[in-house]
Amino acid sequence: MLTRVFDMDWVPIVFVIFKALALGLAMFFAIKWHYDQGKKGERRTLLRTGGTMAAVFVLALLAVGLFAFVLSSMLGLDLNLS
């Protein structure tokens, strides 16, 4: 009975829930802060900054995908879709 309490099956579930809650809360306050700052500044500057950040995110996503593809090819992983 005591070994059942210390079973490690629940640890990933708790950590994933905690991580989702922490990141969700952080994103909420980050978006709220940026929204409040946007009210103070010019709308055009805010849109330009948002577009730049979106472009940087897409480029970073492509770079990570390309890096993963090249690394997996170098390691000899089969990448065929068929």
Low-confidence stretches: none
List the total number of helices: 3
Helicity range: over 70%
Whole-Å distance between the termini? 48 Å
Largest sheet: none
Strand content: under 5%
* Class by alpha and beta content: mainly alpha
Question: How many domains comprise the coordinates?
Answer: 2
Shape: flat
The chain-level mean pLDDT equals 84
Number of strands: 0
Order of helices and strands: HHH
CA-based gyration radius:
21 Å
Question: Can you put this structure into words, describing what you see?
Answer:
By secondary structure, the protein is an all-alpha fold. The chain folds into two domains: 1-40; 43-82. It has three helices and no strands. The protein is flat. The relative contact order is 0.04.
Summarize the structure.
The protein has 82 residues and is mostly helical. It has three helices and no strands.
Please tag this protein with its features.
mainly alpha, 82 residues
